[in-house]
Amino acid sequence: MISMKFEKLDIKKHSVHKVAELLYETDHDIFNFFYHNKSNTAKILEKLIELGGNNLGHENICVVTENDTVIGVLLYSMGDHDAFYELMFHFKNLNFIDALKFSLIDLKDSLVLAHLVDGDFYLAGVAVDEEFRGWGIGGLILDHGIKMAKKRGCKRVVLDVALDNHGAKRLYEKTGFKVFDKRSYPWFDGRIGMYNMEIICIK
Predict the structure, then answer these.
(1) Spatial distance between the Cα atoms of 191 and 64, rounded to a whole number of angstroms
(2) What is the spatial distance between Cα 177 and Cα 139, in angstroms, rounded to a whole number?
(3) Residue range 137-172, pLDDT digits in tens
(4) Who's near 3: CB < 8 A, 6+ residues apart?
(5) In what order do the strands lie in the sheet with 69-78?
(6) Helix (H, G, I), strand (E, B) or coil at 162
């Protein structure tokens, strides 16, 4: 049995590159559309993680580790995010093309992700290294996320899952999340969309 820790990301101790690769997995179809592959995407994500001060910043990330090796990741936030601030941050810290791409990704997200309000704790990204799937790490991340929300006095925990990600949806439902909305829109040869899911926190 592996020995795991759930802890805040420490960019001096943990592999930011591994975290970036795992975050890529949370929305790989869209990232591939703009950046073509994991390697290209991870380079941009690494920069945003290390910079901090944005939705993908290191201060918003917890990791599951085994002997300091990252095997799972949780990206989180509280309440609604400031879209204009994120836009300005990207254009200040990325080259123009990358900033434009992330602005389009944010626009896509606004069409399908859950509407957040004050008092919401948002699990923006949950991912587990493929080698360690089936060990219950996804459930561990969700449990810790819910505990973090309750500790902060949040009213509900919210996450999104792609319409075709049936395995993840089953895991979230097993943990207690319920669908409260379903959002989608046409995307080239089909539709792209999300189930918006929530748990109401009980003190």
Answers:
(1) 33
(2) 12
(3) 999 999 999 999 999 999 999 999 999 999 999 999
(4) 66, 67
(5) 5-8, 61-66, 69-78, 120-128, 156-162, 190-200, 178-187
(6) strand
Q: What is the pLDDT of residues 81-135, one digit of tens each?
A: 888 999 999 999 999 999 999 999 998 898 899 999 999 999 999 999 999 999 9
Judged against a pLDDT cut of 70, whether residue 63 lies above it is answered with: yes
CA–CA distance, 27 with 21 (Å, rounded to integer): 11
- pTM of the predicted protein model: 0.95
Residue with tokens 């002997």: 67
Whole-angstrom distance, CA of residue 122 vs CA of residue 101: 23
- Domain 5-200, CATH number (from 3.40.630.30, 3.40.50.300, 3.40.50.1700, 3.40.525.10): 3.40.630.30
> How distant, in Å, are the alpha carbons of 68, 129, 161, 191 from that of 65?
5, 10, 24, 35
